[in-house]
Amino acid sequence: MKNLTILVIVIIIVFLAGGFVFTNSEGTTGNVVAQNPKKDATVLGGDNQQVVLKQEGFNYKDINAKSGKPIKIRADSSVKGCLRAPFFNIDGKKYYNYLRTSEDILQLPALKKGIYSFSCSMGMGYGKLIIE
Ligand SMILES: [Cu+2]
């Protein structure tokens, strides 16, 4: 858990360095229109697929992707605050990034079929990555 503590400190620093400005500039939006999460997995050219992360309540909406191809995760403007820093622990390896804008990417490796749970880096909001 020491690594997680360091991560949390880093995230806090990142937030102080401008995360709040970004959050404020987004303003408060109304309800996000529900979308079929299966449509969020877009197969890009070659070996990549991309998934857009969305927030639902205090958690993430489930996201879907295909097995065997690396995954690029982005976050749209529905994702607020520390949920913009998703954290995956997959087979003992940690993957995280602060997705400050919708252009920032968290790169995951190709995964096997299964359900991978993840959280914000502070462990407050949760989501599931469903690999089919
Ligand atoms: Cu959090």
Features:
5-stranded mixed β-sheet; Immunoglobulin-like; binds copper (II) ion; 132 residues; 4-stranded mixed β-sheet
Question: Care to describe what's here?
Answer:
This protein is an alpha+beta fold. It has one domain (2-27, 36-131): Sandwich (Immunoglobulin-like), CATH 2.60.40.420. 19% of the residues lie in helices and 33% in strands. Strands 5-11-10-7-8 form a 5-stranded mixed sheet, with no helix packed on it. A hairpin with a 5-residue loop joins β1 (42-43) and β2 (49-53). Mean pLDDT is 78; it is low at 9-39. Residues 82-83, 120, 122, 124-125 line the site of copper (II) ion (CU). Copper (II) ion binds next to loops.
Ordered list of secondary-structure elements with their pairings:
Blueprint: H1 2-26, E1 42-43, E2 49-53, E3 55-56, E4 59-60, E5 63-65, E6 71-75, E7 86-90, E8 93-96, E9 106-108, E10 114-120, E11 126-131
Parallel strand pairs: 2-6, 5-11
Antiparallel strand pairs: 1-2, 3-4, 6-9, 7-8, 7-10, 10-11
The structure holds copper (II) ion (CU).
